[in-house]
Amino acid sequence: MIAPLPRPSPGPAARLGLPPAPVLRAYLLAWIPLAIVYMVATETDGDFSNGIDIASALRGGARGIGPAMLLLPFVWGYTGMMARRGFGLWRVLANHIGMAGVFAVAWHVCIYLWLWLANGRAVADAAQHNWFIWQAMWGMMLYWAVAGGFTAYRAIEQARHDAAAAAQAQALLARTELAALRNKLNPHFLFNTLHSIIALTRRPGAQAEQALQMFSDMLRYVLDTEKQGRDHVPLQQELDFTRDYLALEALRLGARLQVDWQVDPLALGCEVPALTVQPLVENSIRHAFNPRSAPGRLQIGVALADGGRTLVVTVSDDGPGCAPEAVDAGSGLGLRTVARRLAVEHGPQASLRITTQPAAGFSARLQLPVVA
Q: Which of 127, 204, 230, 312 is paired with 177 by a 20 to 30 Å CA distance?
């Protein structure tokens, strides 16, 4: 089972309503050019003929923008509160309009008190008459810039979290469906194989006993992959399982079953879904060999294509075939389940294509990407 995405536990900064460290660092860096421009503008007043007194500029900058830089990080907690309570757009805008005014007044009061404490009330009163209006306007603009930045960051992080949660849910859904499809194939295989063994019990000799021994080996493969939760196995194991199945069917069909293997050794290490190749072979046994007494040929081909990026498995026979529309209307479980498993796991990158015509045999071509 996939665990839900964890939410980080709030640290001391978060409990104080401050942004997380990465956001706070970006916030402080953004103030550097603004502080430089502010200090130069207020210190020179546009006249650079007398140079710049660095100490005076630093004091002026600390007095003018220091309070704003210290107050605005708390807007992070305010935007978070509105997000948690699910405020609508107009309510958010109304709250920000009010808080922008509160911040502008608080900033103004901080500067006024600084001047009063440092230079006396008369200097503070004179100064505020000069800069109250533009300081209030600039304060509201700063508030909106910071609030907008914090809100955008929260929206981006929420979108990333939602996308990760959606991907996780989709993966869980796919795993659940794959398990269900796998559980369909297992009893389907067991029923059809037991049916073949029952046919052997009507014959004299030890063939039925030999078939049961083969069946036990095949059953061990199915149960081992199920027990270990292995939906994928090396192609070599899947082909060995298919060979065991064909050996069991050969006891029943005898010389009627002729198998031609064409396997690229380089493809044997590729991972494939368990019980992928055997259902294709079983389909040919049922429709090309069971209905007739004449010998037939089964061809199993394995190759790499697209420079080794794609695995191609082809199972074809020279049986009676059928009309293409009969394949779509058929009630067979094996091919449908294999096709659905490929679609769930690999989407359009994988496919199972059926080619058949009356008296022209039946061919199933399985194609899936090679997972490095």
A: 312
Question: Looking up tokens 């429709």, which residue turns up?
Answer: 287
| 311 and 214 co-located in one domain | yes
Specify the pairing of strand 362-369 against strand 232-234.
Answer: unpaired
Looking at the structure, tell me whether residues 98 and 24 fall in a common domain. yes
Give Rg (Cα) of the chain: 37
pLDDT tens readout for residues 288-337: 887 777 888 999 999 999 999 999 999 999 888 888 777 766 656 778 88
Strand (E) or helix (H) holding 310? strand 310-317
Long-range contacts of residues 171-174, Cβ cutoff 8 Å, at least 24 apart: 171/2, 172/1, 172/2, 174/344, 174/345
Both 267 and 364 in one domain: the answer is yes
pTM of the model: 0.53
Residues belonging to the chain: 372
Same domain, 163 and 27: yes
Domain housing 326: 203-369
- Rounded to whole angstroms, how far apart are CA atoms 356 and 325? 10
Pair of tokens at residue 238: 């899947």
Amino acid at 80: G
**What would the two tokens of residue 230 be?**
């292995």
In a domain, 1, yes or no: no
Residue 202: DSSP 8-state: T
Please tell me whether residue 341 adopts helix, strand or coil conformation: helix
Residue 317: which of 264, 265, 274, 256 has the closest Cα?
A: 256
**Same domain? 247 vs 363:** yes
329 domain residue, yes or no = yes
Evaluate whether residue 246 is within a structural domain: yes
Q: Which of 78, 77, 143, 145 is nearest to 107 (CA)?
A: 143
**What's the CA gap between 251 and 214, in Å, rounded?**
11
212 and 106 part of one domain = no
Judge if 107 and 213 occupy the same domain.
no
Distance CA 114, CA 109 (A): 8
Half-sphere exposure of 159 toward its Cβ, with a 13 Å CA cutoff? Answer: 6
- Cα–Cα distance, 127 to 129 (Å, whole number): 5
Query: What would the pLDDT profile of 22-79 be if each residue is shown by its tens digit?
Result: 888 888 888 888 877 777 766 665 555 566 667 776 776 777 777 888 888 888 888 8
